[in-house]
């Protein structure tokens, strides 16, 4: 047995012992709901009553695939099926032989002319599994590749359940959006070609079709330049991709039907350029390599003609390496200080009648766009590149959210959404899944009647780093009962909130939830003192204190909601990208940070808009979590290897893995901010702590929440399953404390273990009372809730996520 097989076995044992018999529960759910363990879920699935036996030997027949892709496809399907226990044979079976057949037929056997994928390439396919065999039909290679990905998922999902048959089914499928991307930052932490290719494999499995490769930034220049060699020689710490390596990655992606869009950041995020060629900068001085995270001042000098010569030559090199029609120029977070303090730049602005730094950047972008057009390329960039003078075919990628993207689309520019898909932030798959690009919201706030009362509170949420988040809570009440509420955060529009009356400690506590750019956001505000608001905001699993005061002169007419896009403008939103910035990501945990969550994002971008059921999504994600590992992703392996690397050899880590089920990395940018306060917010800080190997969300806790939902729906077995899990956790605390005492790398989590044990004891007390039918009295409810709140106030890089679950358990047991 290989090390990975052994690790996977440990995970499976834990999964089953949790009562995460989820594999089997999910299978029943799929059967009942006529659903399959696929992500993204196809547009049309017609299940037939019979099953198809997949034999150990499989004949794979290809007709019409592009000649450049023939051998690759054959090798890929052979490798994938081998991992799943099947052998591909090239010899067609005799009529007497019992052998499974996979026929991949493109355009009725006629070779498709286009080898490279482009924006709006046809990606449709049909997958038929009948008693006669397996047929994948497509108009071109790209649809065929997606059909193979669907088939591989079906086989892997059944194999994870030790099932060798496949459902007989007819699937007709195509993407909802043409641009479905994953951005990986190779600057802040360098990612090897081998690891990049593995993520490309994952993208193909998830039907993502654009790899956005972030290659230059303040902390390094990551590709070899022939025309400006000091860039990779002086500004890369010898960690860069040779041109041959880039061609290799681009070729590999192309074989998978994935476009590669390079990002070359100008005019800001230019500290690495400044190290190599300071004469191109606005402030001409000697620069040193920047290894801290954040936004820095060095800017290219827009008044210097040599800057445009530089950009022209770099773009020429990029076009020789990357065949895609788009080049991403970054363009975000320009700190204008150097421009404002430069006499030459100020004179240049006056000569060109430019009023401010914003207009200057727009002017600069126009020049860059002209250079790109000369090389037959289109401009792509972050929100800040948007300006009306640029041609309509530029692509604007929004990190500022729907407020910005709506304006871009309404002005007939093409746009992509990345806000809500930032996977460097630990966030739940459910949050990403709810992040609908073309949502239909209420266009206006409810108009209060004469018998309604309007009140409003202003509040502030201080952050650990940077400016505080400021907000306004506007409420409409009738007969002292709150009926509507809206929240405005910073300069965004108001959002209607979902009121949550659960577990309020007194009548004047207001609980609400919204999805903000920070993540799933829960406010718990105490309004009992008319002069002062107190409480907390939960950003995912992270606790932030809030304070504020009532507004005496609030004008309800100012409650304006973000308008929905007109149908004519919706067509300008072409899709979205998951983004992975690598301040806290290394080669050792990159898969763990991307997968399996990105399958949920991929589904939002591929599947029908009607795919909204969070519980169903998680049912399939649980199986994808295992089957994706079977197909070669390393997220489970990195979790296990990371934990194992923190202890001495031969140490049993079962109790540590059980502890990990109760914890999550602190959500939002809490870890970044804590590291900043500890002077660990830089490249030199190691990413080798327990928190670095925790999944972004505990799927065990997700499953327990589903069991709790089942109990609230009348299924007492759900509560018993929760108790079983908590008992199992209880059995591991003594052992894990012994391990931490013997292994110095775990010394920092001792207090976490004690707090987790306290939470689990409270949870078991609540659950046992619930099972026995004993209702918990209000004073005891308040005592437990306050105890849980106090434990959660201690903001750390590791969140006691089990405590938030126990809060929900307490509410369920209080009301049932």
Automatic annotation (TrEMBL):
Pfam families the UniProt entry points to: Glyco_hydro_20 (PF00728), Glyco_hydro_20b (PF02838)
Domain (Beta-hexosaminidase bacterial type N-terminal): residue spans on this chain: 37-173
InterPro entries associated with the record: Beta_hexosaminidase_sua/sub, GH, Glyco_hydro_20_cat, Hex-like_dom2, HEX_bac_N
First and last residue of the signal peptide: none
Keyword Hydrolase: yes
Keyword Hydrolase: yes
Keywords: Glycosidase, Hydrolase
Ranges for domain Glycoside hydrolase family 20 catalytic: 177-437, 499-608
PANTHER family with a match to the protein in the record: BETA-HEXOSAMINIDASE (PTHR22600), BETA-HEXOSAMINIDASE A (PTHR22600:SF21)
Similarity comment: family membership: Belongs to the glycosyl hydrolase 20 family.
Designated name of the protein: N-acetyl-beta-glucosaminidase
Source organism of the structure: Thalassotalea castellviae
């Amino acid at each position: 047995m290989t090390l990975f097989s052994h690790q996977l076995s440990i995970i499976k044992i834990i999964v089953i012992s949790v009562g995460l018999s989820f594999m089997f529960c999910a299978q029943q759910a799929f059967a009942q709901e006529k659903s399959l363990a696929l992500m993204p879920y196809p547009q049309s699935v017609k299940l037939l009553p019979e099953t198809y036996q997949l034999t150990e030997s499989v004949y794979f027949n290809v007709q019409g695939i592009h000649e450049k892709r023939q051998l690759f496809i054959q090798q890929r399907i052979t490798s994938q099926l081998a991992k799943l226990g099947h052998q591909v044979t090239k010899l067609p079976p005799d009529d007497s032989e019992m052998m499974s057949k996979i026929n991949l037929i493109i355009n009725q056997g006629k070779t498709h002319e286009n080898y490279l994928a482009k924006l709006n390439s046809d990606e449709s396919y049909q997958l038929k599994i009948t008693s006669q065999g397996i047929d994948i039909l497509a108009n071109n290679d790209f649809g065929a590749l997606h059909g193979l990905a669907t088939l591989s998922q079906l086989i892997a999902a059944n194999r994870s359940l030790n099932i060798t048959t496949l459902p007989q089914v007819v699937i007709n499928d195509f993407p909802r959006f043409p641009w479905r991307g994953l951005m990986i930052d190779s600057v802040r932490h360098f990612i090897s070609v081998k690891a990049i290719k593995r993520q490309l494999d994952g993208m193909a499995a998830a039907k993502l079709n654009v790899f956005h490769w972030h290659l230059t930034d303040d902390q390094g220049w990551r590709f070899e330049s022939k025309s400006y060699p000091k860039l990779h020689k002086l500004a890369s710490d010898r960690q860069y991709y040779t041109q041959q390596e880039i061609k290799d990655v681009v070729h590999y992606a192309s074989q998978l039907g994935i476009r590669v869009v390079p990002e070359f950041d100008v005019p800001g995020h230019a500290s690495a350029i400044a190290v190599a060629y300071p004469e191109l900068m606005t402030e001409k001085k000697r620069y040193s390599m920047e290894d801290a995270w954040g936004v820095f001042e060095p800017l290219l000098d827009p008044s210097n003609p040599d800057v445009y010569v530089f950009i022209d030559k770099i773009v020429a090199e990029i076009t020789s390496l990357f065949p895609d029609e788009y080049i991403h120029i970054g363009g975000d977070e320009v700190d204008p200080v150097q421009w404002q303090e430069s006499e030459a730049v100020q004179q240049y602005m006056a000569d060109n009648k430019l009023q401010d730094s914003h207009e200057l950047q727009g002017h600069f972008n126009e020049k860059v766009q002209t250079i790109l057009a000369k090389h037959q390329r289109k401009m792509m960039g972050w929100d800040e590149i948007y300006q009306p003078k640029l041609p309509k075919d530029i692509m604007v990628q929004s990190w500022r959210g729907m407020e910005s993207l709506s304006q871009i689309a309404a002005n007939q520019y093409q746009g992509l959404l990345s806000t809500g898909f930032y996977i460097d932030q630990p966030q739940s798959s459910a949050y990403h899944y709810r992040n609908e690009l073309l949502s239909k919201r209420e266009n206006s706030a409810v108009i209060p009647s004469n018998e309604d009362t309007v009140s409003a509170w202003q509040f502030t949420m201080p952050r650990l780093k940077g400016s505080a988040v400021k907000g306004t809570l506007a409420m409409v009440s009738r007969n002292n009962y709150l009926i509507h509420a809206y929240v405005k955060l910073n300069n965004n529009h108001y959002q209607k909130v979902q009121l949550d009356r659960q577990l309020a400690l007194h009548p004047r506590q207001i609980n609400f939830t919204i999805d903000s750019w920070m993540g799933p956001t829960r406010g718990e505000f105490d309004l009992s003192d008319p002069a002062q608001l107190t409480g907390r905001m939960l950003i995912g699993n992270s606790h932030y204190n809030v304070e504020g005061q009532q507004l005496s002169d609030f004008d309800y007419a100012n409650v304006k909601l973000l308008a929905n896009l007109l149908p004519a403008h919706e067509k300008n939103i072409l899709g979205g990208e998951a983004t992975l910035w690598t301040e806290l990501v290394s080669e050792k945990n990159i898969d763990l940070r991307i997968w399996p969550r990105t399958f949920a994002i991929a589904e939002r971008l591929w599947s029908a808009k009607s795919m909204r059921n969070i519980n169903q999504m998680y049912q399939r994600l649980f199986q994808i979590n295992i089957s994706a590992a079977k197909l070669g992703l390393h997220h489970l392996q990195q979790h296990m290897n990371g934990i194992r690397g923190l202890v001495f050899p031969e140490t049993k880590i079962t109790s540590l893995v059980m502890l990990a089920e109760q914890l999550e990395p602190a959500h939002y940018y809490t870890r970044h901010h804590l590291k900043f306060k500890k002077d660990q917010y830089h490249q030199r800080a190691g990413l080798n702590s327990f928190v670095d190997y925790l999944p972004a969300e505990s799927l065990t806790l997700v499953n327990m929440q589903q069991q709790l939902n089942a109990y609230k729906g009348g299924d007492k077995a759900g509560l018993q399953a929760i108790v079983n899990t908590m008992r199992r956790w209880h059995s591991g605390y003594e052992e894990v404390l012994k391990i931490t005492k013997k292994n110095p790398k775990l010394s920092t989590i001792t207090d976490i273990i004690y707090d987790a044990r306290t939470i689990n004891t409270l949870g078991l007390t609540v659950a046992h009372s619930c099972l026995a039918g004993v209702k918990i009295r209000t004073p005891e409810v308040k005592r437990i809730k306050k105890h849980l709140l106090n434990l959660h106030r201690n903001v750390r890089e590791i969140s006691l996520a089990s405590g938030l679950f126990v809060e929900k358990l307490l509410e369920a047991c209080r009301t049932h």
